[in-house]
Amino acid sequence: MRFTHPIFICINQRPKGDPRGCCANNDSERLQKFFKQEVERLGLKETVRANKAGCLDHCSFGPAVVIYPEGVWYWVGSEKDVTEIMERYVLKGEIVDRLLIPD
Question: Core-most of 8, 20, 39, 76, by most CB within 10 Å?
Fold first, then answer.
């Protein structure tokens, strides 16, 4: 089976106070689980996979997410952000500008 939208969510753990930041300290594991729930809610289990990832080197923005095949980088801070990405980007192909990680 090939997934049309593999989603990678950073769950990397660094010590508190690390100047690079830490996605896991910002609830990324909980948000990764919520991505999986949204995949199921939207009936996308056959085409979308929400994967745990190691460090994606964008920890200073908050929990980092990259979605392929386009390689769009987002940060997520809440379940609302996850739902917006799933409903707008994954389903409709609309970029969620407010959540983009700058180049």
Answer: 76
